[in-house]
Amino acid sequence: MYTLHYYPGNASLLPHMVLRETGAPFTLALVDRQANAHKSAAYLTLNPNGLIPVLEIAGETPMFETAAIAIALAERHPEAGLVPPVGDPLRGQFLKWMLHLSNTPQATYVSWFYPFQFADDEAAQAAVKAKAAVRLDGMFDRIAAQLGDGPWLLGDRFSAADLFLFMLIRWGRSMPRPPRTVPALGALAERVLARPAVQATLAAEGLQAPFV
Ligand SMILES: N[C@@H](CCC(=O)N[C@@H](CS)C(=O)NCC(=O)O)C(=O)O
Question: pLDDT by residue (tens digit) across 123-173?
Fold first, then answer.
């Protein structure tokens, strides 16, 4: 029914974790980044932006955008409890976090991982990267302050937003101040890592510890 186009550790990790949390059957399609497969004509028919991930749903238009895919999957499998239903007061908070994580830290990571998209010379690229790290530090501090002891972003209720935050914490492993070193974020990452579906996802992608 579902085919997730992924690359280990990339943004596809979020929909991959969501899929395993739901227990729905799916197929993984590895995008060969080394061969630039995400810029191939075939892949561009799935996502004209040439970015990972894409979710194919049998008989439907392929989806791109990580957060949108995660929300759509969570809603198609309400029994997994990954999204508060329409009418639940927590639903707005859930959507707030999904959009915030998508358009603020996730978007800023582009400057950290791909500074060459923003400047041509090496010194300027180093400056772009340094600025991205400082901005991410501030974003993670503000998220941590709102998370507190949680245990989850929605308080007692686990949701796909926690999986999203985990992925973003993981991406900062090589930053001058890794997000895991912020106590509330490190604790959230450990709680997410304790979930069997998350462990299964990391294993399926061949990712090695330390995970965050
Ligand atoms: N806003 C997009 C961003 C996706 C994105 O940037 N994916 C990265 C991998 S984590 C990618 O495909 N990078 C390859 C490139 O920039 O060419 C989403 O959330 O789906």
Answer: 999 999 999 999 999 999 999 999 999 999 999 999 999 999 999 999 999
What is the DSSP annotation of 36-65? TGGGSHHHHHH-TT--S-EEEETTS--EE-
Per residue in 11-51, pLDDT (tens digit) is 999 999 999 999 999 999 999 999 999 999 999 999 999 99
User: What's the pLDDT at 24?
Assistant: 98
Domains and CATH numbers, the chain: 2-80 (3.40.30.10), 90-195 (1.20.1050.10)
199: enclosing H helix or E strand: helix 196-204
- Atom 11 (ligand 1) nearest CA: 51
Please give the distance, rounded to the nearest whole angstrom, from the Cα atom of residue 208 to the centre of ligand 1: 21
Q: Which residues contact 204 (CB under 8 A, 6 or more apart)?
A: 16, 20, 28
pTM above 0.85, yes or no: yes
Q: Quick one: pLDDT at residue 190?
A: 98
C-alpha of residue 34 to centroid of ligand 1, in Å = 15
